[in-house]
Amino acid sequence: MSRKKETVSPHATPDGKRFKQSSLLEEMTLVIERALAAQSDVIRSIISGMLSEALGPLNKVIQDLMENLNIHIKTVEKLTSAVDAVKADMRQAKREVNDCMQLVDKFQDKLNDPEDRSRRCNV
Predict the structure, then answer these.
(1) Can you tell me whether residue 92 is helix, strand or coil?
(2) 19 Cβ neighbours under 8 A, 6+ residues apart
(3) pTM of the entire predicted model
(4) CA-CA-CA-CA torsion for 17, 18, 20, 21, nearest 10 degrees?
(5) Burial 72-102, CB ≥16 within 10 A → b, else e
(6) 29, 11, 7: which is closest to 20 by C-alpha?
(7) Which one of 1, 17, 29, 83 is at 20 to 30 Å from 65 when CA atoms are compared?
(8) Cα–Cα distance between 22 and 52 in angstroms, integer?
(9) In angstroms, how far is the first alpha carbon of the chain from the final one?
(10) Per-residue pLDDT tens over the stretch 35-73
C-alpha cells in the first residue's frame, strides 16, 4: 500500500485550514505598517535630538542678540527723548531770539527817528 503524500499549502494553518490570501495580505500590511511606524518614531526621535543639539547654540546666540537688541532699543529711546528735549529747547530759544531781534529793530527805529528829525531840520 502506498501512501499518498500530502502537500501542504504555504497558506495553510497548522490544523490544515487554508488562510484566505486577502487576510494574509492584510496581516502582512499591518505588520509592515507597524514596523514603519516604529522606524518613523525612532527616526523622528533621532532627528529631534540632532536638531536640538545643533540648534542649542544657535538659540543661545539668538537669545544674546535679543538681549543686546533690547539694550540698544532702550538706549535709542533715551537718546530720542533727549533729542526731542533739545529740539523743544531750541524752538523756545529761537522764539526768544526772534523776540529779541524785534526789540532790537524797535529800539533801532527809536534811535533813528531823532537823528532823522535832526537831519530834516538841517535841510
Answers:
(1) helix
(2) 11, 12, 13
(3) 0.47
(4) 150
(5) eeeeeeeeeeeeeeeeeeeeeeeeeeeeeee
(6) 11
(7) 83
(8) 44
(9) 172
(10) 999 999 999 999 999 998 988 889 999 999 999 999 999
